[in-house]
Amino acid sequence: MKRILSTASWITLGAAIAVGAGIMTDPARAADYPTKPVTLIVPFKAGGSTETMARLLAQAMSKSLGQNVIVRTRPGGGGAVGATFVATAPADGYNVMFTTISSLTYDPMVNKQIKYNTDSFTYVAGISEYQMAFVALPNKPFKTLKELIDYTKKNPGLNAADQSGMSRAFINYIAQKEGVKWTAIPTRGGGEMVPFLLGGKIDFAWSGGVHQKYGDKMIVLASMLSHRLAASPDVPSVQELYGISMPGSAVLTVRKGTPDAIVAKIEAAAKLAMDDPDFTKVLEKLKFPKKFVSTADMKTLVADTVKGLKTVVDATKK
Length: 318
Description:
- This protein is of the alpha/beta class.
- It contains 11 helices and 11 strands.
- α2 crosses α9 and α4 runs parallel beside α11.
- The radius of gyration is 23 Å and the shape is globular.
């Protein structure tokens, strides 16, 4: 006599088959990846340093992946629009994001409207580092951050250009620590900050690295990274001075849950791309250093970044 399965049994059997099929096909998909073009999402406007790096990086990665890597900008919300897209895209490695680590760590801390968080992504690799700094004109009566603070105490009312909530928070944090007050003047990127500074409309500024294009027309008061800038090795970092630092890494990420084998392929392609002559030239032009960070080491970098940012965020909450 034939055994007739109940509806519930058929459902259970179907689920088991589906799970089994997933187990069989996921490694197969990872082994074949990529079978179609990969999209490299840049969550900022075209023409900036991030998109400039991305275009050359994509071309170089295409060679090792054997598929076109197409750059698509999805600007808005300081990086949130593009990050939200990647955080909700299929976890299949076909939507990779090239962005600043700060947009994935600092922004979710302070903006409750953002739907993703730091754990929404797998951090594939670090590629380079934005050369964040406090900068001023060489004709100012201060040449270091300490001299700026001493000058402010005797001459209150100085103002500083910021470019984001994060740079404003760091300006306020240091001001609080030193018992001074600086008025933050919002600027829309380095393109607006530079004429403000050169035109004497502000006393000093936060820079993401654009100052390096202007040679001796600007001086570095302090590195905002965890270490000194490559181009200003004699200038202390805020990590040395205050035990805090800004996250400056330019990173590749994918949605969390992307198979490890696919992540490993993207990581390997990124590492090879960093030695591409055209990509090397664009970094030299931007004066950004190569700084490869592996997938494994990115976990520690992200954890340390979140810890440091929390210190600043908690101290500057109103």
